[in-house]
């Protein structure tokens, strides 16, 4: 946690040795000293005064020693470890493009986090699907999920406390079974629909022993470990761990609160919305209530970033939060972190995200803040952008139409690519585009699921798709930094995928697939 730490005790000022020497007394002729005769009462009184003064000096010295030194950073949370920052990737099995040599596998990293745990594990979860549902899935990697599940049990058996924050509306049968296996496993559920008109727990955050952190796109699903492209960051740091624990604890608190909501008319989006009573949208109304989460002495945001030496290189960073009601005044809202990253660019902006659209089937709001930011930096500073979206069995053709429109409005400043994971149309999806031929892969697989931005100087790795609901009523987060090594590596990830045979220019994609999938989507509807 971000507790203030006192500065080292300041030693009291040294008194000159000359001042401590008693005055020389006159010598009597017989060689002894002489002095005025002092009464016993005066001796006692002087002794008491000296003792009192000594006590005051000691007390004052102690008080001063507990105050932070205004000229030092000692009052900030101290880093207790050597901070490390690593990219964490899943490149699906049966896929020809490998991860970066310096990246770690999501499965291996998450397993190592669990196995290394000594005190506690805290994780936010959307849904659970770690176990093999069919023996035929073993060749596709479902045993990776089984090992993660078993590792949770083993951690609990050796005394580690496990805390899960789970979306209430999603499948968590496997979690309930896990909880029943050990008194060391606890969970709470959060239902966005109790607080908003919609939403979900979409944040993917792991914190182990308050020092090891995973933040990224990977779900609690064996598919995220073997059949879906994922990107996240792995961090070892007591400072970052403290921030992540604060975020988890705030969500855990929220999940245990009584529902207090207000309906109001949002003038920006011209719709009536439901929101928690402490929302900043209600600040000037009688419906506003007090922010329910702790106000910490040390919090960091995009205007007050923390500095650490990750992998030996000094860098600034912060963790954003979504929605606004979990961010409050002390933290950066996720959408503001994304926009800030874009607007800070001087040369290039590259974005990879699964869904990116100003409209969606889940809400009635027009939300084009990210598109506007891309156009603004192009018109104002000549910053060029490349946007890579994903196409899979559950994609909306309207997203492609909006991306074509964005390219047209930019007059060459924005390029859009559509990434199609091989096998995307060979899944047994029952609520998306029907498969071609006999299904080979499970539903909700074979897609690029990562969400990140990289500029020439900064990187934002997060959990949110770029649609209105993800920033208004859905739980999400991102890690934002100018760490040079990480910027370079994320740029390599983007370039690798952009230049692959699986990415098509948006107009090229439309010429080949547009009419076909527009018709297919109408049939599915």
From TrEMBL:
GO terms for molecular function: catalytic activity. The lineage of its organism: Eukaryota, Sar, Stramenopiles, Ochrophyta, Bolidophyceae. Keywords: Membrane, Transmembrane, Transmembrane helix. The chain crosses the membrane at residues 43-64. Pfam families: PLDc_2, PLDc_3. Residues 197-224 form the PLD phosphodiesterase domain. This is PLD phosphodiesterase domain-containing protein. Belongs to the phospholipase D family.
